């Protein structure tokens, strides 16, 4: 969690931040997604279905908020809650 705060200050001071986009299967859970975080970059996750079609885009703060509010649910459940 401290890394996220440091990341925000680096962003404000430098005026930019590198980002990382990872495609994730929609049946994976939020903790698995959080394990993919790169602490030095802003993380975005493209959620893909069985056909490898884009279902949604989830940002790192969405994953953290989802874990806080709902626990370790799947991305599929998370997307249904946030429709």
Gross CATH architecture: Roll
Quaternary organisation of the protein chains? single chain
Structural class: alpha+beta
As a percent range, the share of helical residues equals 40-55%
Q: Briefly, what CATH class? A: Alpha Beta
The total of helices stands at 4
Strand order of the largest sheet: 1-2-3
Please give the number of β-strands: 3
Written overview of the protein:
By secondary structure, the chain is of the alpha+beta class. The protein has one domain: Roll (CBS-domain), CATH 3.10.580.10. 43% of the residues lie in helices and 24% in strands. It contains 4 helices and 3 strands, in the order αβαββαα. A 3-stranded mixed sheet has the order 1-2-3. Helix 2 links the parallel strand 1 and strand 2. The radius of gyration is 13 Å and the shape is globular. The model has no long low-confidence stretch (mean pLDDT 94). This is Stage IV sporulation protein FB. InterPro entries: CBS_dom_sf.
């Amino acid at each position: 969690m401290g890394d996220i705060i440091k990341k925000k200050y680096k962003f404000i001071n430098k005026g930019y931040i590198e980002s990382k986009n990872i495609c994730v299967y929609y049946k994976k859970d939020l903790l698995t997604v959080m394990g993919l975080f790169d602490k030095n970059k802003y993380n975005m996750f493209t959620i893909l279905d069985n056909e490898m079609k884009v279902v949604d885009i989830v940002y790192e703060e969405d994953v953290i908020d989802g874990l806080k509010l709902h626990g370790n649910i799947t991305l599929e459940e998370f997307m249904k809650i946030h429709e």
